Amino acid sequence: MTYRMVHVGLGSQGKRWLTEAIPPNVEASRIEVVAAVDTDPERHELAREELDLSPERCYTDLDTALTEHDADCCSVVTPPAAHEPVVETALSYGLDILSEKPIADTLEGSVRIARAVEAAGAKMGLTMTHRFDRDKTTFRRAVEGAGPVDYLTARFTGNVRERGYYSPYVHEMENMLLLDGAVHHLDMLASLVDAPCERVYADTWVPDGADYRGDCTGLVTLTFADGTRAHYEGSYANATTLNGWGHEQLRAECADETIILDNRNVERFGRDDDRTGGSAGRDDGERVEPVERPTWTNAWLIEQFCDWLDGGEPMPTDVESNLQSMAVVFAAIESSETGEAVDVQALLDEARAVPQPQ
After folding, report:
1. Of 77, 291, 307, 348, which has the highest C-beta tally within 10 A?
2. What is the per-residue pLDDT for 168?
3. Is 329 within 8 Å of 184 (Cβ atoms)?
C-alpha cells in the first residue's frame, strides 16, 4: 500500500529527508508526499525542487495542510521542543507518525506523547538513525553471534568547536551533547543489551574555546539490569576528529571475542590462549563483511514504518520502546547536573506519575 504522508520540517535535517530518505520510498511506492510544512516560507522551495510539490501543497501551518489534504501519516523533522504540538495536531487528524529523535525535549513530554499515541490508537516510530546505519548493523550482528557481553564502550569525538558546521540552534541547546549526539550513541549501546538500563552516571562540560551554550563534552557510565556495563566518551570540541559523526568507535568485550567497530570497519578478535598476557596487533583481527541491503538509516526506517502500517511487527524504535532510551538520556542529564548516579527506571516512573493535562 502507498501511504499519503505530510512532511513537517524543511531545515537542515529535513533537507536530508527530502534528498536521501524519502525518494527511495517514493520510488518503491511506499509513500506519496501530499504536502510539506515549515513555518519559514523561504524553505518551501526545497520541497518544490526535491519532491516536485506545487506551491499550493507547501504550508506554514500544519492544521491547514491537514484540512486541505487527506493523509495517512506525518513525518516530524522539527526541533525537539516543537515535537509535542506537531504530534498532537497529527493525532487529532487520525494520522500515524514517524518522528526524528528525541521524542520530546523533556522526559515528561516524551511520556505525554507516548500516552497520547496510545490513547489515539495510533502508531509512532522514532528514527534512531545511527542504530540502522550499515556499520552499526554489521557490528550489532557480529555481537549477537559472539555470546554474552561483559561490557561495551563507545567513542564519538570531533573538532567542531565553532559555528558553521551544524545548525545554529544546536549551539544554543541546553545539554547539547546528550540531546543531540549521545541520544543516538546511548540508544545504540542500550540496543546491544537484553536488559533495561538501571543506573547512569555522567559528567559533562564545555571546554575552553568551544562555542556552545550547553555542555558539548562528556563521559557517561551505564549499568544494566543483567550486570552488563557500558562507557561512553563524547565530544564536539576536541583538537582532532578521531571518531566523528558516522565514524564512531564501538567495542564489545564478550566471553571469547572482542569485537571492534572503528571508522566504519568491523573486526573480531578471538580468544587466543597462546597470547595470554601479550598484546594483540590490529592485523590479528578478522574483518567482518559489511551487511548488504538496499537502503540504510532513515530510508530504511521509513521502510520499517510502512511495513508496520501494513500490519507487520512494530518498529524496534516504536515510541513506547524508545522511552527507555529517552530515560537513559535524561538520567544522564540529571546526573551531570547533580554529580550523582541516577536510577533510570525510577526516573521514568516519576515521569509517568506526573498528572497528564486534561
Report:
1. 77
2. 81
3. no
Query: The C-alpha cell of 315 is what?
Result: 518498529
Per-residue model confidence (pLDDT) at position 164: 84
The closest alpha carbon to 58, from 70, 47, 71, belongs to 47
The pLDDT of residue 96 is 98
Query: In this predicted structure, what is the pLDDT of residue 6?
Result: 98
Three-class DSSP category at 6: strand
3 state DSSP class of 302: helix
Q: Provide the pLDDT for residue 278.
A: 64
**Cα angle at 161 between 159 and 164, to 5 degrees?**
105
Say if strands 3-8 and 265-270 run parallel, antiparallel, or are unpaired.
unpaired
Q: Which of 80, 92, 251 is nearest to 178 (CA)?
A: 80
Neighbouring CB atoms inside 10 A of 98's CB total 30
246-274: string of b/e by CB count within 10 Å (b at 16+)?
ebbbbbbbbeebbbbbbeeebbbbeeeee
pLDDT computed for residue 165 by the predictor: 83
Task: Give me the residues of the chain with pLDDT under 50, please.
Answer: none
Give Cα 134 to chain centroid, integer Å.
15
What domains are defined for the chain?
3-130+297-318 (3.40.50.720), 131-287 (3.30.360.10)
Cα gap 292→299, rounded to integer Å: 14
Looking at the DSSP assignment, which residues form a beta bridge with residue 262? 249, 265
Whether the model clears a pTM of 0.85, i.e. scores above it, the answer is: yes
Cell triple for 19: 534528498
Q: Where are the beta strands (DSSP E) in the chain?
A: 3-8, 31-37, 58-59, 73-76, 96-100, 124-127, 149-157, 197-205, 217-224, 229-235, 249-254, 257-262, 265-270, 286-287, 342-343
Give CA–CA dist 303/298, Å, rounded: 8
